[in-house]
# Entry
Amino acid sequence: MTLEELDSYQRTNGKSKNWIRVGLDTGGIAAGGKEVLASLREEKDDAGYEVDIRSCGSCGLSFADPTVEVQVEGMPTMLYGAVDAKTAPLILREHIGKGHLLDDHVMATRKRATSLDGEKQTAVLVMDTCVVGGDKTKFFQASFEQELKVHGFGDEIRVYRAFDMGLYDRGLCAQLFPSGVTFSNVLSPDIRRIIKDCLVEGKIVEDLLESESDPQARVVLRNCGKIDPDSLEDSLRNGGYRGLRRALTEMTPEQVIEEMKASGLRGRGGAGFPTWLKWKLTRDPESQRKYVICNADEGDPGAFMDRSVLESDPHSVLEGLMIAAYAIGASKGYFYIRAEYPLAVERVRQAIEQAREAGLLGRKVLGTDFCFEAAVRLGAGAFVCGEETALIASIEGKRGSPSPRPPYPSVKGLWGMPTSINNVETLACVSAICNRGAEAFARYGTEDSPGTKVFAVTGKVRHAQLVEIPMGYPIRSVIFDICGGVLDGEDIKGVQTGGPSGGVIPEKHLDAPISYESLRELGSIMGSGGMLVMDERDSMVDVAKFYLRFCVDESCGKCAPCRIGGYQMLQIIEKIYRGRGEESDLSQLRHICSAMKSASLCGLGQTAPNPVLSTLRYFEHEYMAFIEGGHAYARKIRQQQKEQEKVAS
# Structure
């Protein structure tokens, strides 16, 4: 592929005016996305609709899987959630055929407008956003319809029940379509005001207006849910490999490193090490060969950020890997992906083959002197292989266990050669930075933690999903303003960040901004981006026990502090949990934690104590309740948990 051919993709759209996209990442497929796609195509063939139906990756709204996005000429793009094979044909018949939306599936836009701009409104989306007191959405819909008839809009404006408004616990909400003007806490008398002021006079009801839009900023997820991950052409039309073009034709390797420095990008795998410095330390040594590795060994329980990016936009990560290779002087790179991610493996392999066939991979990329090859290596699911030296050993065919550092991989890495290892999210940021410039990335976030961060928000949360927010955004706002708060309306107790290596942050500290420094001060870490929500029914002793058992099971056993210390701590917590603990056990736990953090060989052993230390720091009273309550309290807690499990099943 020549530079001119690459540029030509930027000048073409390649889409029909009418199109439908079905989200087919792992979550979408598990929820029935393939059946939805087949149903849509069958209905299209039977009825002869002029519409392009294709698949895409995840848009991040996991709670709404499978999602279907629809574009019809003359209408704004609309998203539907929780679509099944029976509902799918109605999208063609109603939305494509008649211009009508679907009740209980249509999702309101989160890009909320503050003015009507003289635009004619054709629909109103309504929803009761409160989780207690009964769902009043249907009553709200009927009231709106009746009032519209009174004002003569009965045949012009339709009212639909929304699947999601992007607003939570704001009472009855209404969004005018297609403008996106949104009102919250609407009461019965307000319906007439909205119709009279907005639809008749073209004014805004200021006291009900929701003026703030979704705070998310999509940098890593910029193409996820928007392109077909199986199509190189789709990626190219949406900016794919533009960052690589700029790096190869307009910048020296040193300038690329300086661009990363200006952006402030830090490793998104958890440690937060400056990306530019890692690249410089790898570029500086003289060596016959150098390597770059994409670490996609995502092992945190409940985390699915890297998997989703690889499944939805593999070319952006491959592009980032190639830019890293150019910057450090490498000619070979590897994707290290855990074998439990078969769809991610398939799509990355396909992306590599497509890039190679197009001349974007191999010798003299884009007509320059840059030569690069990439391959995929599978991990067997060992959590410890997320650690750099263990990952390198695994690629070399050795047992995946860490090695002492220094020397660091940047000096002596894969097969003894200088090696730069970056995770999936970091490389997706790299391609965006080279395409849009360092300033565009650095305008997000804080001074010490620039840019955005992707989190997989799971646990006791109403709407589990992927979110990408600017650094510095409060944890509480992520949970309540973006993800809808705690499941079943329960009180939040804490949030675990960083997976087994992180800590529990209690409710009183949830207003803390998300950054590497602030989370560390609270006794947790950023990690790769897991965020697990817990409510008042969760036992913090149980949480610590779960994560500690995970670390004990996943320890390679190479060093004594981790191998012995983790097992000893688990035995003490098990003893406390059975109601046989003593107060002295708590000081013993802290002593072992200190030894593990200071003496363990790798990050697994050094961070494994974090869940224990953080729960002791903020919830020591729960440990004491088990100790003082003895068997009786322990039995009561276990009985409550069994009842919760029975209700859930």
Q: What stands out?
A: The first strand starts at residue 19 and ends at 23. The mean pLDDT is 93.
